[in-house]
Specification:
There is one protein chain. With about 250 residues, this protein is of the alpha/beta class. The chain is built from eleven helices and eight strands. It has a single domain, classed as TIM Barrel. The protein is about 50% helix and about 15% strand. The chain has an eight-stranded parallel β-barrel, surrounded by eight helices.
Length: about 250
Amino acid sequence: MVRLSVNVNKVATVRNARGGTEPSVEAAVKACLDAGARGITIHPRSDARHITSQDVDSIAALLAPLRSSVELNIEGDPRPDLLDMVLRVRPHQCTLVPVRPGEITSEAGWSASSPRALVEDAVRKLRDVGVRVSLFVEPKPEPIDWAADVGADRVELYTEPYARAFERGERAANESFARYAAAAEHAHERSLGVNAGHDLDLHNLPLFRTLPHLDEVSIGHALIARALFVGLATVVREYLDLLAED
């Protein structure tokens, strides 16, 4: 079954808007686990506008006794403090993403023209301590080849273009999905695992979960937004049930 990794960044965003400790990110992680999630994603940005370094340490400590059954995925750009954090915490997976100045959320994946030396060095350091490395890429052969060449274990396909195509109707959705399927096949041929994330939700995931070789989906904004109305445990179970369907 495709693993669901719940991104809890938005819980930290709400907490930081007021200050203090509520809503508790640790409590959110526990609620996700109690509902059956077996993956947690966090993205500590350099401006700490949601997940902070303290959150990273507390979530890692919370999940440490569950290491054999629950995966921690830390996302971020390969800046020195992020790499130091990941090397210290040693999550199951680190997803390296490009960051553009002023962006609200990720706007693109790595391209084949991205600076290779910086990413290649980060990949090597992380893999040397047993951290699986995924690179956030566009669904095209060239960046997938680039990810394979710098030594990544997986790619995470950037799915916002698919989400926008899905909103335009069935034909556009199917055409976009076909491009992602081809990208996933190409990644598999290059011995890369396949993750996916960005704007996946309960509406567009039923089609996307049929992507060949799909290992994991990371979902945050849509999941937390729905949780405001139905509760976090309920929406996590909705996603898990959807991913478990034949």
